[in-house]
């Protein structure tokens, strides 16, 4: 077997070397390779664009192709755009940019490569999207590359595009060799493309290591050597893990997103993938080691220190549980994951893998306790185990409290309850109900894991709430402060601004600041510009006071200002609920003060979300907080969904002390800022809603892992994969329910989605009709001719919480309620081409299309707009509410449906067992009866009153019992006759043997009577008489032996200690054997006939003594040991051994290997032992010796 392990290991190493060499030669990561792949993908898209351009003629049907988002086509006739496939390309200078002759240019906020084709008087253009370049980014606005370039999201910031030569830049050319632009790769760029074939080879090598380790342990007899292999394998895995992390090898693995170190701080666990691998290794090592460990339970030191050994094992389990808690705390705190799997929405692949890894780590606890109980079972009684474990858990609970460890009372209680349940399972219960206890243990493990993860997620949330509180107390916007630092550099470096201020042209300076220098796009701040000279004053309307201009600003900065880096800006913290910044600059005799005050975000969704630089909608690290600021017990400001009290005293808490409490379905954190100010941050209780539903998810994962033998194969009799009828019934029920729920969930989502879309479409049409009716009375809706229409559209937009766009019949934007969206280039100034076709060419009265701005998708509704003066236009409403409401409806439905499905799956697992038990119980009863059926015994019939298939089967069984009883009577009669015939033959044979010499001697005596020598006759007579007496004695012994075998005496069973009987029997042969060793475990009691047992032992010892050939120093070893509730008595000699061809006959009557005797001794021994309910057998090796063993039940004290 060691050879097999070596072959597997050698093959795995060869596979690893071949895989690594293949990856090095063909999948290396370097800039030249990246550039080649980039150009290859670009050229492939160019060929596709050229192929489509070649098909264009006088006109192009917009419905002829499924136009890609990253490949846009434009047609220009007589300097007028008449055809386009995507409205995002709309730009007032589009015609000029396309006809300029450049192959690479920026249109709006995106860089495009341009491919051309001229057909008659038409110029067709194909625009290949290379990269976005928005003025700023936010939650929905991100700079992405064209999808065909296959650059992942995390690499976007690592790739720069330049139209001019740059250092370390690589020139990108088109397929014709013409230069387009330069590309620069950052230091942290890496391609995600992993070869999954290579990945599978690496995984195969990794699994083969555990296979080899399992083989080695399985065929190692010495437990000390097994521990040495265990330690060596642990060190090898630790070294392999360090090597992989230090050198990020193999690259195929570390290109996977789950191995990104950005998920975590570099402490202990560096990534989700590392967490999964580490827990898998711990799990597999524990499972394999505990499955194969072979402890010598007869070791005197082990038996002497068994209590200390037991306590040490419990302490090691406790240390692992502490480590388990520590690991979960690290994972939750440092990784961007959410372990509330039942909520589904914030859960990604990383969260699911972390959840599975934590479950595997929890299973290690159960596996270890299971192995520990198996060890305890060999060394001490059930009561002793419970006492030792209870004492240790109480002690460790006190240790946890005293030293503030990660564990607490509940962790120790979990160790105790699992140990007790598994001990009850091993010591007291039958195997047919052990599985139920294992299921209960797994369910308790699921509860425990969920409680631990919830505890540490609650800690994380509280720490994040404290961090958020710090920001609110400081009243600072760190994102905006970065922009202020940039503005500071611009102001200090603007000579134009300095010139205008020094010559006294304040209006020009203010215009310059507002127009160019202070770019606040995406920031919700108002700006107040003030120029102060010596003697200038300010009138404060709020306090009705007059201040000196400079003195006022300097007083605010001096009292409440905190300087931002080395800039001229200060954050003003007065805890009034507002974020304020003041900038101070001196230009000669003039002081310039810039005041920025945060304003409330625009109401509504959609375009306001696009215009905001916020990365999330008021969401702080995954939690939606509400907060309130109180000054002197009065509410100053508040934000969020919770409606705060005007008086702080309404909370009923002491404002001078920090407090965390629940009220009105919210968790409130009360934080004293100073003697007069208090901050309250609140979080809705539904944040951790459904958390305990995770118990079912954890239970489901445990069952999946256990089903494939990773745990239950420790007990070979408990295997979920066995192909029994009961297992098939359970699997069928579970599979059927699972399939039905998948189908019902999919149908429910589909039908509800269609229903929701229908309702929202109807709502959008109603809004279109209302706006249409309001606008058709206007004389003009073209903002170029009547600018006041923009204000009218804005008013309607605020009233209806929607945005409104108006296009000409040619598809050009002429008016909008949100001009900045188009000015910043987030939306194109062309209408959706399909909507233009439907309304202008096909004459539909309304049309619904799907729109997209950045990453935000929405429903866009179109309708013809005809004014009272007869002019016609196209009215458009981007309906963003549909997207959020629809997604929310679907999410809620999916969460509810999936959680119900999980509940039903767990119930199905439990109920399927009950159903399968009920269905198979008659079959199991029939199976048990068939197992007990034997010739010569009383075979019982089965009582079953149901007239079904099983009933007919039971009826046939009962008929078979009747027929078998009849057959048994006939067979018994035949066997008795045959036995007596055989016995008569044996007796005749044994008696005939001495009769022959007796007859010959008597005949010899008759001839001697004719002799005359009387003395000789007398001498011969005495010799013959002695011989005849000896033969008669032999015949008497034969008769006695057969009598004993035919009718053994009645057993007189009693309870006695077997060690005393064994020692007494061994003394009888002490002087007849050169070396007789007696190793007997004391205190083992059995129920048997003492005299019959003595007879068996003496017979076996006598046979052992007689088997030793002359000239060999005889050695007989007697051992008595307790094993698995039974006693084993072994008698080993170093005699001749029993040949292979004679071993089957050794217990047959009248069979012997000796030159004398009747061969009844071993047959009698076998009959005695079997009458006691025991077992007797032997193992033998010719020329080495024979070992007989007796196994009997132990009588527990």
From TrEMBL:
<feature type="transmembrane region" description="Helical">
    <location>
        <begin position="733"/>
        <end position="751"/>
    </location>
</feature>
<keyword id="KW-0067">ATP-binding</keyword>
<feature type="transmembrane region" description="Helical">
    <location>
        <begin position="436"/>
        <end position="453"/>
    </location>
</feature>
<keyword id="KW-0597">Phosphoprotein</keyword>
<feature type="transmembrane region" description="Helical">
    <location>
        <begin position="307"/>
        <end position="328"/>
    </location>
</feature>
<feature type="transmembrane region" description="Helical">
    <location>
        <begin position="267"/>
        <end position="287"/>
    </location>
</feature>
<feature type="transmembrane region" description="Helical">
    <location>
        <begin position="689"/>
        <end position="712"/>
    </location>
</feature>
<keyword id="KW-0812">Transmembrane</keyword>
<feature type="transmembrane region" description="Helical">
    <location>
        <begin position="413"/>
        <end position="429"/>
    </location>
</feature>
<protein>
    <recommendedName>
        <fullName>histidine kinase</fullName>
        <ecNumber>2.7.13.3</ecNumber>
    </recommendedName>
</protein>
<keyword id="KW-0547">Nucleotide-binding</keyword>
<dbReference type="GO" id="GO:0000155">
    <property type="term" value="F:phosphorelay sensor kinase activity"/>
</dbReference>
<feature type="transmembrane region" description="Helical">
    <location>
        <begin position="227"/>
        <end position="247"/>
    </location>
</feature>
<feature type="domain" description="Histidine kinase">
    <location>
        <begin position="986"/>
        <end position="1196"/>
    </location>
</feature>
<dbReference type="InterPro" id="IPR003661">
    <property type="entry name" value="HisK_dim/P_dom"/>
</dbReference>
<dbReference type="GO" id="GO:0005524">
    <property type="term" value="F:ATP binding"/>
</dbReference>
<dbReference type="InterPro" id="IPR003594">
    <property type="entry name" value="HATPase_dom"/>
</dbReference>
<dbReference type="GO" id="GO:0016020">
    <property type="term" value="C:membrane"/>
</dbReference>
<feature type="transmembrane region" description="Helical">
    <location>
        <begin position="388"/>
        <end position="407"/>
    </location>
</feature>
<keyword id="KW-0418">Kinase</keyword>
<feature type="transmembrane region" description="Helical">
    <location>
        <begin position="348"/>
        <end position="376"/>
    </location>
</feature>
<keyword id="KW-0902">Two-component regulatory system</keyword>
<dbReference type="Pfam" id="PF00512">
    <property type="entry name" value="HisKA"/>
</dbReference>
<dbReference type="InterPro" id="IPR005467">
    <property type="entry name" value="His_kinase_dom"/>
</dbReference>
<keyword id="KW-0808">Transferase</keyword>
<keyword id="KW-1133">Transmembrane helix</keyword>
<dbReference type="Pfam" id="PF02518">
    <property type="entry name" value="HATPase_c"/>
</dbReference>
<feature type="transmembrane region" description="Helical">
    <location>
        <begin position="890"/>
        <end position="916"/>
    </location>
</feature>
<keyword id="KW-0472">Membrane</keyword>
<feature type="domain" description="HAMP">
    <location>
        <begin position="917"/>
        <end position="969"/>
    </location>
</feature>
<feature type="transmembrane region" description="Helical">
    <location>
        <begin position="196"/>
        <end position="215"/>
    </location>
</feature>
<dbReference type="InterPro" id="IPR003660">
    <property type="entry name" value="HAMP_dom"/>
</dbReference>
């Amino acid at each position: 077997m060691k050879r097999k392990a070596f072959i597997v290991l050698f093959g795995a190493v060869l596979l690893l070397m071949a895989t690594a060499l293949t990856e090095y030669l063909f999948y290396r990561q370097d800039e030249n390779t990246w550039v080649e792949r980039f150009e290859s993908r670009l050229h492939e898209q160019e060929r596709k664009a050229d192929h489509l351009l070649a098909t264009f003629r006088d006109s192009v049907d917009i419905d002829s192709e499924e136009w890609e988002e990253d490949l846009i086509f434009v047609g220009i006739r007589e300097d007028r755009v008449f055809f386009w496939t995507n409205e995002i390309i709309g730009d007032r200078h589009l015609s000029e940019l396309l006809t300029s002759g450049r192959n690479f240019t920026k249109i709006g906020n995106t860089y495009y490569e341009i491919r051309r084709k001229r057909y008659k008087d038409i110029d067709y253009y194909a625009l290949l999207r290379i990269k976005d370049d928005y003025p700023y980014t936010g939650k929905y606005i991100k700079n992405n590359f064209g999808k065909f370039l296959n650059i992942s999201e995390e690499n976007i910031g690592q790739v720069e595009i330049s139209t001019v030569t740059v250092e370390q830049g690589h020139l990108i050319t088109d397929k014709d060799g013409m230069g387009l632009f330069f590309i620069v790769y950052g230091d942290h760029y890496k391609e995600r493309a992993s070869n999954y074939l290579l990945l599978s080879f690496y995984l195969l090598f990794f699994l083969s290591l555990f296979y080899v380790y399992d083989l080695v342990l399985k065929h190692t007899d010495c437990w000390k050597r097994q521990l040495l292999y265990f330690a060596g394998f642990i060190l090898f895995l630790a070294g392999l893990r360090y090597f992989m992390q230090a050198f990020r090898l193999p690259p195929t693995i570390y290109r996977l997103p789950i191995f990104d170190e950005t998920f975590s701080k570099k402490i202990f666990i560096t990534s989700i993938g590392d967490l999964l691998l580490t827990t898998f290794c711990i799990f597999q090592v524990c499972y394999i080691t505990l499955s194969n460990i072979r402890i010598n339970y007869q070791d005197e030191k082990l038996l002497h220190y068994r209590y200390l050994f037991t306590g040490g094992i419990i302490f090691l389990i406790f240390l692992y549980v502490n480590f388990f808690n520590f690991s979960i705390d690290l994972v939750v705190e440092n990784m961007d994951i959410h372990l509330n799997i039942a909520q589904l929405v914030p859960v990604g692949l990383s969260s699911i893998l972390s959840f599975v890894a934590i479950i595997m780590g929890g299973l290690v606890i159960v596996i270890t306790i299971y192995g520990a109980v198996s060890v305890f079972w060999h060394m001490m009684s059930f009561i002793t185990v419970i006492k030792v474990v209870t004492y240790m858990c109480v002690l460790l609970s006190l240790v946890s409290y005293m030293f503030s460890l990660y564990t607490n009372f509940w962790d120790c209680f979990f160790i105790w309850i699992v140990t007790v349940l598994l001990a009850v399972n091993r010591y007291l219960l039958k195997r047919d109900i052990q599985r139920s206890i294992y299921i209960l243990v797994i369910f308790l493990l699921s509860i425990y894991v969920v409680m631990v993860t919830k505890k540490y997620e609650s800690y994380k949330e509280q720490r994040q709430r404290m961090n958020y509180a710090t920001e609110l107390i400081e009243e600072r916007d760190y994102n905006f402060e970065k922009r202020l630092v940039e503005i500071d550099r611009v102001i200090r470096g603007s000579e134009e601004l300095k010139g205008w201020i020094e010559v006294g042209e304040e209006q020009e300076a203010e215009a310059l600041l507002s127009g160019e220098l202070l770019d606040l796009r995406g920031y919700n701040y108002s700006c107040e510009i003030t120029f102060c000279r010596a003697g200038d004053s300010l009138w404060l309307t709020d306090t009705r006071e007059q201040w000196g201009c400079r003195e006022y600003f300097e007083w605010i900065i001096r009292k409440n200002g905190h300087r931002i880096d080395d800039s001229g800006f200060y954050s003003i913290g007065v805890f009034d609920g507002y974020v304020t910044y003041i900038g101070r600059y001196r230009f000669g005799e003039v002081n310039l003060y810039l005041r920025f005050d945060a304003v409330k975000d625009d109401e509504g969704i959609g375009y306001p979300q696009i215009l905001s630089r916020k990365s999330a909608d008021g969401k702080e690290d995954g939690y939606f907080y509400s907060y309130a600021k109180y000054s002197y017990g009065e509410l100053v400001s508040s934000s969020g969904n919770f409606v705060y009290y005007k008086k702080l005293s309404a909370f009923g808490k002491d404002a001078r002390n920090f407090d965390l409490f629940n009220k009105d379905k919210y968790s409130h954190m009360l934080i004293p800022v100073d003697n007069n100010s208090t901050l309250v941050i609140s979080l809705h209780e539904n944040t951790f809603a459904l958390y305990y539903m995770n118990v079912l998810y954890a239970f489901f994962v445990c069952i999946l892992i256990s089903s494939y033998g990773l745990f239950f194969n420790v007990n070979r009799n408990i295997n979920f994969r066995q192909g029994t009828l009961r297992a098939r019934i359970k699997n069928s029920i579970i599979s059927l329910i699972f399939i039905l729920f998948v189908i019902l969930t999919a149908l429910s989502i589909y039908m509800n989605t269609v229903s929701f879309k229908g309702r929202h479409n109807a709502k959008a049409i109603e809004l279109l009709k209302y706006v249409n009716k309001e606008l058709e009375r206007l004389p003009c809706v073209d903002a170029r001719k009547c600018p006041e229409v923009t204000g009218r559209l804005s008013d309607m937009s605020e009233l209806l919480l929607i945005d409104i766009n108006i296009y000409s019949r040619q598809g050009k934007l002429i008016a909008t309620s949100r001009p900045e969206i188009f000015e910043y280039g987030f939306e194109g100034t062309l209408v959706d081409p399909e909507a233009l076709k439907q309304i202008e060419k096909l004459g539909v009265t309304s049309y619904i299309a799907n729109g997209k701005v950045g990453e935000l998708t929405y429903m866009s509704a179109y309708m013809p707009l005809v004014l009272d003066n007869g002019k016609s236009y196209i009215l458009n409403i981007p309906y963003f509410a549909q997207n959020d409401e629809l997604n929310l409806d679907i999410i809620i439905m999916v969460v509810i449906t999936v959680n119900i499905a999980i509940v039903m799956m767990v119930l199905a697992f439990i109920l399927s067992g009950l159903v399968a038990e009920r269905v198979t119980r008659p079959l199991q009863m029939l199976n048990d009866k068939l197992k007990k059926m034997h010739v010569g015994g009383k075979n019982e019939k089965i009582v079953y009153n149901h007239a079904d298939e099983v009933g007919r089967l039971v009826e046939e069984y009962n008929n078979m019992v009747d027929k078998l009883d009849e057959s048994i009577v006939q067979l018994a009669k035949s066997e008795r006759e045959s036995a007596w015939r055989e016995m008569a033959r044996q007796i005749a044979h044994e008696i005939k043997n001495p009769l022959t010499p007796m007859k010959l001697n008597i005949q010899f005596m008759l001839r001697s009577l004719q002799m005359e020598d009387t003395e000789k006759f007398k001498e011969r007579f005495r010799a013959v008489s002695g011989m005849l007496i000896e033969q008669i004695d032999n015949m008497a012994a034969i008769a006695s032996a057969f009598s004993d075998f035919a009718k053994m005496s009645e057993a007189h069973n009693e309870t006695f200690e077997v060690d005393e009987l064994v020692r007494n029997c061994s003394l009888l042969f002490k002087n007849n054997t050169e070396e007789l060793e007696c190793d007997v475990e004391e205190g083992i009691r059995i129920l048997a006939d003492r005299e019959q047992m003595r007879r068996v032992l003496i017979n076996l010892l006598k046979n052992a003594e007689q088997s030793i050939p002359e000239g060999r120093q005889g050695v007989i070893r007697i051992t008595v040991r307790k094993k698995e509730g039974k006693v084993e008595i072994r008698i080993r000699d170093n005699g001749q051994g029993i040949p292979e061809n004679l071993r089957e006959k050794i217990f047959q009557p009248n069979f012997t290997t000796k030159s004398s005797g009747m061969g009844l001794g071993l047959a009698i021994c076998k009959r005695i032992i079997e009458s006691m309910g025991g077992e007797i057998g032997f193992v033998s090796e010719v020329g080495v010796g024979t070992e007989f063993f007796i196994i009997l039940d132990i009588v527990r004290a």
